[in-house]
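Trying the structure run again after the queue cleared.
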Amino acid sequence: MRRINIVDAAAALVVVGMTASAVAAYMVVRPHPPVFSTMTPTSIRAGVRARVQFTGRHIRPFLQALVVPHGTAPTADPTRGAWVGIGDTTTAALELPRLDAGEYDVHIYDKGVEIARAPAVLIVRR
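Done. C-alpha cells:
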C-alpha cells in the first residue's frame, strides 16, 4: 500500500478547489438567454413606420429582429434583420418598416441564431 505524501495531497486539494471556483465563476458570469415578456403597442396602423417597445429580462445589445406575416417562415437572412435598440437589460425598442394590414410574428436573433419567437404578436390595421 502506498502512502500519500503531504505535497501530493495539497496539490490535489488545490486542483479540486480551483475546479470548483471555475465552475462557480462560470455560473455567475455566463450570459443568460433573453426572455421577452411584453411588447407595446400590439396594434399599429398599416403603411406607417412605427416603433414597438419590448420588456423582459437579460436583453443584451446586438440582437436583431425580423417581422414576418403570421404563419410564414422568415425568408430573409437573420443577420440583415433590424437591430433591436437596447434601453437597459429589461427594455428594448424596434423600428418597424411600413407594413400591410394583417397579423405578424416577431423573430429575435442573436448572431444569426433564433432565440425568441412571438407568434401573432403584432396586428396591423387599415
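The first strand starts at residue 35 and ends at 40. Worth checking whether this holds up in the mutant runs.
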